């Protein structure tokens, strides 16, 4: 098979796995959490049902909202789709479009998506959403800083800003994986992932306003737009989680070649089960924190990432 | 030979324990964290002692663990007067941690590039760059004293500074005599100060510092 065709197949597998399988992981997480809490819980396909139901429904838009409110969900989803080409979320070698952006570019695209989400939800003109946005902003000023610092850290460790090189470097030797700066940055990124995907024991996903962080942004959305945004957030969770697994936490076992790419989908599934298990344990065993403690949590993650930078630069 | 990665790991754990103390409002876990921090330094001393066959390092390790992990911890708990559940009212842990970060980050970079880089410190075990951890710990101790009002937290800050001097001494293989002497004198003073201050009162307000 010509290498171009192989590349095309690998690209299709990676992107379609990221887009189509991402709701499944949320479903498994919810099911497992319900099991630990002694409930039956919804089916693990529930996120798919929700998305299909919402995509079929009509959209209700408030009078005050502008065009940004209507079009931003599509752009946000498009950004996540683009990111799924750029970073090793399924396949461990570069695919189409990968050389366009480096690791930092990926981080900036994530930031752009969250900025668009914020600005478009404020456009609805709802006071309640404005409150939610200010709450989100009081947390993400730390998380965005940590995201960028973590990617700086990765760049400094390997001397390049390419996640694929990092992946290669880590799998070369166990001593690379156990380097102190890498360990610190992994812990920091894991903490960040817990926050970004609402897996902290502070946040209760859903529309209960006391523990609501990310869902406040979706409050005025309905129908198809809400479906797209929800799907987008599942994709985001998958992308960040897979970067955490492949570049930081568990970089081994990935195969190359078109058949290897198919196998990678299954390997990623197993890796994700491990990650879901860890996050369920964290979410169900820790006592529920007060909401403002999220800042302290993120501050620790930020400090660990900076500390890792200090160690990389000064000690090497 | 000395495994530098192991030294880095233990030194980084010491810094993490200092960060934990900075973010901790309750006295009891902070005192325990201080004991663990001192124990980690003694582990470092033991490791270097056995790896380089230096008997004085082993003795130093024993002294550190006895004096700091046990005796000072005992005095601090005695100072709490059997009320270990009490806490200091701290606000804004996140901002405190970030200011702490900015503080030691800047200080350490200045020290590294303008002081350590110029004097060309060399040690027998090749641990010269690791001494940077002792400076980080020193500035964290200093920051703890500045940000807290309770006597216990301030004493822990002082112990952290002392620990940083010991850490510097331990990492500068062999230990300079001056540092060795100052460690013992300081520990003696520390026990006296700890027992006196904590017996006096638990919290100092800003106005009291100005009273004659």
Plain-language structure description:
The complex is a heterodimer of chains A (316) and B (212). In chain A, 72% of the residues lie in helices and 0% in strands. In chain A, helix 8 (180-196) runs antiparallel to helix 11 (293-315). Chain A has 316 residues and is mainly α. Chain A has helices spanning 3-36, 46-56, 67-86, 103-122, 127-158, 163-172, 174-177, 180-196, 223-249, 258-285, 293-315. Chain A has one domain (3-315). Chain B has 212 residues and is an all-alpha fold. Helix content of chain B is 75%, strand content 0%. Chain B is globular and about 50 Å long. Chain B has helices at residues 4-23, 27-51, 55-79, 93-119, 132-147, 151-171, 177-200. Classes of the chains: A mainly alpha (316), B mainly alpha (212). Chains A and B meet through helix 11 of A and helix 1 and helix 4 of B.
List the helices and strands of chain B in order.
Answer: HHHHHHH
- The helix tally of chain B amounts to 7
Number of domains of chain A: 1
Q: Tell me the fraction of residues in β-strands of chain B, as a range.
A: under 5%
Largest interface comes to: A-B, 20 and 21 residues
Notable features of this structure?
heterodimer, A: 316 residues, B: 212 residues
Question: TL;DR of this structure?
Answer:
The complex is a heterodimer of chains A (316) and B (212). By secondary structure, chain A is mainly alpha-helical.
Per-chain topology:
The complex is a heterodimer of chains A (316) and B (212).
Chain A: H1 3-36, H2 46-56, H3 67-86, H4 103-122, H5 127-158, H6 163-172, H7 174-177, H8 180-196, H9 223-249, H10 258-285, H11 293-315
Helix pairs in contact in A: 1-9, 1-10, 2-9, 3-4, 3-9, 4-5, 5-6, 5-8, 5-11, 8-9, 8-11
Chain B: H1 4-23, H2 27-51, H3 55-79, H4 93-119, H5 132-147, H6 151-171, H7 177-200
């Amino acid at each position: 098979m010509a290498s171009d065709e192989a590349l095309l197949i690998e690209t299709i597998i990676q992107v379609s796995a990221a887009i189509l399988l991402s709701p499944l992981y949320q479903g498994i997480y919810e099911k497992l959490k319900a099991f630990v809490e002694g409930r039956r819980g919804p089916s693990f396909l529930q996120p798919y049902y929700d998305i299909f139901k919402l995509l079929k429904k009509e959209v209700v838009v408030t009078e005050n909202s502008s065009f940004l409110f209507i079009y931003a969900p599509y752009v946000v989803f498009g950004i996540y789709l683009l990111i799924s080409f750029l970073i090793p979320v399924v396949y461990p070698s570069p695919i189409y479009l990968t050389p366009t952006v480096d690791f930092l570019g990926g981080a900036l695209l994530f930031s752009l998506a969250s900025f668009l989400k914020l600005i478009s939800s404020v456009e609805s003109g709802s006071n309640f959403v404005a409150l939610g946005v200010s709450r989100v902003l009081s947390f993400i000023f730390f998380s965005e800083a940590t995201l960028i610092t973590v990617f700086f850290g990765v760049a400094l460790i390997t001397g390049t800003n390419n996640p694929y090189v990092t992946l290669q470097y880590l799998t070369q030797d166990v001593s690379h994986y156990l380097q102190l700066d890498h360990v610190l940055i992994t812990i920091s990124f894991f903490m960040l992932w817990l926050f970004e995907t609402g897996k902290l024991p502070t946040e209760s996903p859903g529309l209960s306003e006391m523990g609501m962080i990310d869902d406040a942004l979706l409050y005025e959305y309905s129908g198809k737009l809400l479906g797209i945004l929800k799907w987008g957030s599942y994709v985001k969770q998958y992308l960040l989680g897979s970067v955490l697994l492949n570049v930081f936490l568990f970089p081994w076992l990935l195969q190359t070649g078109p058949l290897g790419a198919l196998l990678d989908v299954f390997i990623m599934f197993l890796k994700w089960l491990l990650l879901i298990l860890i996050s369920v344990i964290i979410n169900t065993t820790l006592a529920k924190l007060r909401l403002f403690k999220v800042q302290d949590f993120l501050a620790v993650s930020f400090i660990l990432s900076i500390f890792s930078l200090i160690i990389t630069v000064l000690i090497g | 030979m000395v495994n530098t990665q192991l030294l880095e790991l233990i030194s980084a754990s010491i810094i993490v324990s200092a960060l934990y103390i900075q973010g901790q409002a309750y006295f009891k876990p902070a005192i325990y964290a201080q004991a663990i921090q001192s124990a980690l330094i003694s582990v470092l001393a033991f490791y270097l002692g056995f790896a380089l066959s230096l008997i004085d390092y082993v003795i130093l390790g024993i002294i550190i663990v006895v004096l700091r992990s046990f005796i000072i911890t005992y005095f601090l708990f005695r100072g709490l007067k059997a009320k270990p559940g009490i806490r200091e009212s701290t606000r804004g842990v996140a901002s405190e941690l970030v200011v702490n970060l900015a503080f030691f980050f800047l200080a350490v970079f200045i020290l590294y590039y303008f002081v350590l880089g110029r004097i060309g410190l060399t040690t027998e075990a090749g641990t010269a760059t690791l001494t940077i951890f002792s400076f980080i710990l020193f500035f964290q101790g200093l920051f703890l004293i500045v940000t807290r009002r309770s006597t216990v937290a301030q004493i822990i800050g002082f112990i952290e500074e002392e620990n940083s001097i010991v850490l510097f001494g331990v990492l500068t293989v062999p230990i300079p005599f001056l540092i060795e002497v100052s460690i013992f004198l300081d520990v003696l003073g520390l026990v006296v100060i700890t027992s006196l201050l904590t017996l006096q009162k638990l919290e100092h307000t800003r106005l009291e510092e100005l009273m004659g």
